[in-house]
Write a structure and sequence with these properties.
With 113 residues, this protein is of the alpha+beta class. It contains 3 helices and 4 strands, in the order βαββααβ.
């Protein structure tokens, strides 16, 4: 599953955020919680979309969110705290995607004739 977190960077901070991200990508990979993989941080281009950036993490099961919540790693915590300084509060959004072949589909009941 892909957990994508979208956000808008504070005015005048995009270059700083870009540099900070490049510097810390290896730390995101190394200190990710068990069951999680950092897949990258991406920036919007050519004015497309409603958000400036998207951080993508991958996990395989819903229980990995408990591991994320319980993860005790000083570097991981520091990265989260530092990253939050770049973003406008209350302007984020997240989405959780699962491979379509693995999505449980619930169709509406068909009316009996």
């Amino acid at each position: 599953m892909l957990w994508i977190q979208f956000g808008n960077v504070k005015e005048g901070r995009m270059k700083d955020f870009q540099e900070w991200t490049k510097k810390n990508e290896g730390q995101f990979e190394k200190h990710a919680p068990p069951g999680w993989a950092y897949r990258g941080t991406f920036g919007a281009v050519l004015g497309f979309g409603n958000y400036d950036t998207a951080l993508i993490m991958e996990c395989s099961k819903y229980g990995d969110f408990d591991k994320l919540r319980e993860h005790k790693d000083e570097v991981w915590d520091r990265l989260g705290q530092e990253a939050s300084e770049f973003f406008l509060p209350g302007q984020g959004q997240a989405i959780l995607l699962r491979e379509l072949g693995d999505v449980k589909v619930m169709e509406p009941l068909k009316k009996k004739k």
